[in-house]
């Protein structure tokens, strides 16, 4: 049975009471424990630094050449916190409420409340570290508003908030490396989890420079390895982002929660051709001042696409600001899932823009008139530059073209209130877990969750587990280390023996097409069923006809890619299974069979008010579904409305 | 497609840091001007793999110009011909049909080649570890708004903090100096009130580590500033020199 371990009592007191009830590890005993942290984004770096500060020995791993390059670095817009510095009605409860509602009532109340509660500490911590947030002339912190909220609670550092927050956490990590409390392993990729008597006791890694397959032991293992958006091939994730660590843990007993919940971000630069390797996000903050529109009629859109008319030829009355029209109270700041689906709708109607017709406009003409070009530049300069660089079009002079792209995965390893997975001693933090965003994440909440988990949750909860263990060092001679290491070596050898006619990217692109077509912004029974068969065939094709070059004992990017795609090919099928099972629409999961008369996502609370947690049962065996019912004691479930 | 280009690439190939490298010539055909430079290399690599040849190894990750993982010396310039951009954000419209492009790794003793175009920049991490932080533990810090910081100071600190640690400054410098990189971090903290208590020990510790890593000296040529993809200013180096000199002359203490 799944036990979420959510403490009893009133919502606002749960975390305080729980902290008191958690067992502590004596300061002098903390150095007897080693904790493994995989991934050094916001969750991983903050966890590794905080745990080392407490006195634990930490081993941290990242696949990049430096921990500072983890993909949190690319987060642009900001970080939410219920500081209410703007005196505009914000509170912990309101942030909690907005997040639960934004997630379409598919997240755990207690986790989300805790997230909102510790959000205020995050900002204090980051400022103390020297994170240069945007400020007002009076010297105090500035805020802006973000999608799904009617208050200004987003703290930011121009369009580079993720970078500045990660560099803050990286600096804290560096301090502990310097003190010898953290041992850092760059260019190491986790390839498996070692369990002993059902408990997580270590990991197997590959040194990406020498190829050495190594065992690392620890009393607990923290996976902070991000999301799995790259299953779609094209996404806003970094090229190296992958599911391997989480997937291997899943195969060792960690349940996977809500794998089908994917966030398709509404404002990305559209695809230009088959050569495209990744997609670039334009921060949601742009929707504060940019207005989204398409031509009112298909005829006008066609003329524009063919170049028969210019954008400026389209009169104001012939422009459809469809978000402002349909959602007058939230306008362009509706949540991401709503904005994305509406973009798809107008494009499907034939009113899209750009040469391909698969884009909508994000227009700053009014903002520039109202605020002046300098103010717009100060707010969004780096984003405008990035857009210009990529598209060769000047967004100060003509509207941006944008289209939704895969951005974030709300699903992830199932964790309890302590962030522990179903494998004792194995934790999942940040995007890697499923816990706080329900079926749709609000903008500026990913940074908040990553840092909340790392700075303010795990330092308390991991102690409770360790305190029950005793002080014995982990037995690194236990046969399970050798056994798991051998399995990893065999898998590497198997991959390197593949000498077919397809490249790994050929297969990955095919998988991406299947996922985007059938398990993307809109899903239905027929399409999903078809996708399941296609993925199974593709997996066979991979293992029979792909080619992987080179040898293990060197830097080998072919091998790295192949291992990751092999795991995506398994995960993809589970995502489809989960999407098939959830015959309701909620947040980013839109089942065409379940919509309101107005075409909005229609939940089925009677039958699907639960977290789907999937248990791995072996090679080519159907996974078993476990359900964690979601109880809502504080908010009333309603049909989300942003009108 | 019309407008597509055929290019000749001369690419540095080197199996590892123990073996000698050399330039190998490849053809990159039918390249769209809308491709990024790295996507062009992806196309070349896909062809190599189909032929059973080891693809060209290069570091890259976010492909949004922010992670700092991509590098490449392109026709003699770090991150290529366009100013203020990383290689991943450099697009092929900056080149023309029939052009020959020479692609090399960063060249610096402190950045040994790992394979082909990928180099080891862990020296940068070690410099940061030596003192690139403020000594605060998680928790127990004051309210964020209890430290007002004038907007101009915060903005200036931010400008220094935007360094992406790519190493282009080192690659551009005839002395392979890391001064622009180190000074950006020292400046960020020297400007902010939070950084004051340790500003002199920090400058000493980071400079000492920089020297230990084997980076060259600064001779104020300014190539680093010209090639920096995120516009880190030379004034940071001036500030670092002042911090370091003040520390050495008046505030010498044991680096923590």
From TrEMBL, chain A:
Residues 508-642 form the Fumarate reductase/succinate dehydrogenase flavoprotein-like C-terminal domain. Residues 35-447 form the FAD-dependent oxidoreductase 2 FAD-binding domain. It is an enzyme of class 1 (oxidoreductase). Its cofactor is FAD. One of its GO terms (cellular component) is plasma membrane. It is a peripheral membrane protein. InterPro entries: FAD-dep_OxRdtase_2_FAD-bd, FAD/NAD-bd_sf, Fum_R/Succ_DH_flav-like_C_sf, Fum_Rdtase/Succ_DH_flav-like_C, SdhA/FrdA/AprA, Succ_DH/Fum_Rdt_flav_su, Succ_DH/fumarate_Rdtase_cat_sf. This is succinate dehydrogenase. It comes from Parapedobacter luteus.
TrEMBL record, chain B:
PROSITE patterns: 2FE2S_FER_1 (PS00197), 4FE4S_FER_2 (PS51379). It comes from Parapedobacter luteus. Pfam families: Fer2_3, Fer4_8. This is Succinate dehydrogenase / fumarate reductase iron-sulfur subunit. The lineage of its organism: Bacteria, Pseudomonadati, Bacteroidota, Sphingobacteriia, Sphingobacteriales. It comes from the Bacteria. Residues 154-184 form the 4Fe-4S ferredoxin-type domain. GO terms for molecular function: 2 iron, 2 sulfur cluster binding; electron transfer activity. GO terms for biological process: aerobic respiration; respiratory electron transport chain. Belongs to the succinate dehydrogenase/fumarate reductase iron-sulfur protein family. Its cofactor is [3Fe-4S] cluster; [2Fe-2S] cluster.
């Amino acid at each position: 049975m799944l036990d979420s371990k959510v403490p009893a009592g009133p919502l606002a007191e749960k975390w305080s009471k729980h902290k008191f009830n958690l067992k502590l590890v004596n300061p002098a005993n903390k150095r007897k424990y080693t904790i493994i942290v995989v991934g050094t984004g916001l969750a991983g770096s903050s966890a590794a630094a905080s745990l080392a500060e407490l006195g634990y020995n930490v081993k941290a791993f990242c696949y990049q050449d430096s921990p500072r390059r983890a993909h949190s670095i690319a987060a642009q817009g900001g970080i939410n916190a219920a500081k209410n510095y703007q005196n505009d009605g914000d509170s912990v409860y309101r942030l909690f409420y907005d997040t639960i509602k934004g997630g379409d009532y598919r997240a755990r109340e207690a986790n989300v409340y805790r997230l909102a509660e510790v959000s205020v500490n995050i900002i204090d911590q980051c400022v103390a570290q020297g994170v240069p947030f945007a400020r007002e002339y009076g010297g105090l912190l500035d805020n802006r508003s973000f999608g799904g909220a009617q208050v200004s609670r987003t703290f930011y550092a121009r369009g580079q908030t993720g970078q500045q927050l990660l560099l803050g956490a990286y600096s804290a990590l560096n301090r502990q490396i310097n003190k010898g409390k953290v041992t850092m392993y760059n260019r190491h990729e986790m390839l498996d989890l070692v369990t002993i008597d059902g408990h997580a006791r270590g990991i197997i890694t590959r040194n990406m420079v020498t190829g050495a397959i190594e065992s690392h032991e620890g009393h607990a293992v923290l996976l902070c390895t991000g999301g799995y958006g790259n299953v779609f091939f094209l996404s806003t994730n970094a090229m190296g982002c992958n599911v391997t660590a989480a997937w291997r843990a899943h195969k060792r007993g960690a349940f996977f929660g809500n794998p089908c919940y994917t966030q398709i971000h509404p404002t990305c630069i559209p695809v230009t051709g088959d050569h495209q390797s990744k997609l670039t996000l334009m921060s949601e903050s742009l929707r504060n001042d940019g207005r989204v529109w398409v031509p009112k009629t298909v005829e006008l859109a066609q003329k524009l696409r063919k170049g028969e008319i210019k954008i400026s030829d389209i009169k104001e009355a012939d422009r459809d600001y469809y978000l402002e029209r349909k959602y007058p109270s939230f306008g362009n700041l509706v949540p991401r899932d709503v904005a994305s689906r509406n973009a798809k709708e107008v494009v499907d109607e034939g009113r899209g823009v750009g040469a391909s017709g698969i884009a909508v406009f994000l227009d700053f003409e009014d903002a520039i008139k109202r605020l002046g070009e300098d103010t717009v530049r100060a707010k969004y300069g780096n984003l405008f530059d990035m857009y210009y660089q990529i598209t060769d079009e000047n967004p100060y002079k003509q509207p941006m073209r944008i289209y939704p792209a895969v951005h974030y995965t709300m699903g992830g390893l199932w964790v309890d209130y302590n962030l522990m997975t179903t494998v004792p001693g194995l934790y999942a933090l940040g995007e890697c877990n499923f816990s706080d965003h329900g079926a749709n994440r609000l903008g500026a909440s990913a940074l908040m969750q990553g840092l909340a988990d790392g700075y303010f949750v795990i330092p308390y909860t991991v102690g409770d587990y360790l305190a029950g263990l005793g002080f014995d060092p982990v037995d690194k001679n236990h046969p399970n280390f050798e056994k798991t290491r051998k399995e990893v070596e065999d898998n590497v050898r198997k991959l390197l023996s593949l000498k077919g006619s397809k490249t790994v990217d050929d297969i990955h692109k095919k998988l991406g097409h299947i996922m985007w077509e059938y398990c993307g912004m809109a899903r239905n029974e027929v399409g999903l069923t078809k996708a399941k068969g296609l993925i199974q065939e593709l997996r066979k094709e991979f293992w029979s006809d792909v080619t992987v070059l080179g040898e293990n004992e060197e830097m080998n990017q072919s091998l790295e890619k192949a291992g990751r795609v092999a795991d995506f090919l398994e995960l993809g099928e589970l995502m489809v299974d989960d999407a098939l099972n959830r015959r309701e629409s909620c947040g980013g999961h839109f089942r065409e069979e379940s919509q309101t008369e107005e075409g909005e996502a229609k939940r089925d609370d009677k039958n699907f008010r639960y977290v789907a947690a999937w248990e791995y049962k072996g090679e080519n065996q159907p996974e078993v579904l476990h359900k964690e019912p979601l109880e809502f004691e504080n908010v009333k479930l309603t049909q989300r409305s942003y009108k | 497609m019309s407008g597509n280009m055929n290019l000749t690439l001369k690419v540095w190939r080197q199996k590892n840091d123990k073996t000698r490298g050399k330039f190998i010539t490849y053809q990159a055909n039918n390249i769209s001007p809308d491709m990024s430079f790295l996507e062009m290399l992806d196309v070349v690599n896909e062809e190599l793999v189909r032929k059973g040849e080891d693809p060209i190894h290069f570091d890259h990750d976010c492909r949004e110009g922010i992670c700092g993982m991509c590098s490449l010396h392109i026709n003699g310039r770090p991150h290529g011909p366009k100013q203020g951009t990383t290689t991943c954000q450099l697009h092929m419209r900056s080149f023309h049909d029939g052009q020959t492009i020479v692609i090399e790794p960063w060249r610096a003793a402190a950045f040994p080649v790992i394979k082909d175009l990928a180099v080891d920049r862990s020296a940068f991490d070690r410099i940061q570890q030596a003192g690139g932080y403020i000594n605060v533990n998680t928790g127990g810090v004051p309210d964020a708004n209890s430290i007002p910081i004038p907007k101009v100071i915060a903005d200036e600190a931010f400008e220094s903090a935007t360094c992406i640690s790519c190493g282009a400054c080192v690659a551009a410098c005839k002395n392979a100096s890391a001064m622009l990189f180190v000074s950006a971090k020292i400046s960020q903290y020297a400007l902010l009130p939070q950084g004051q208590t340790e500003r002199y020990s920090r400058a000493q510790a980071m400079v000492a580590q920089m020297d230990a890593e084997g980076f060259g000296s600064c001779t104020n040529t300014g190539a680093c500033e010209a090639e920096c993809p995120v516009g880190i200013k030379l004034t940071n180096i001036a500030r670092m020199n002042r911090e370091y000199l003040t520390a050495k002359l008046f505030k010498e203490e044991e680096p923590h």
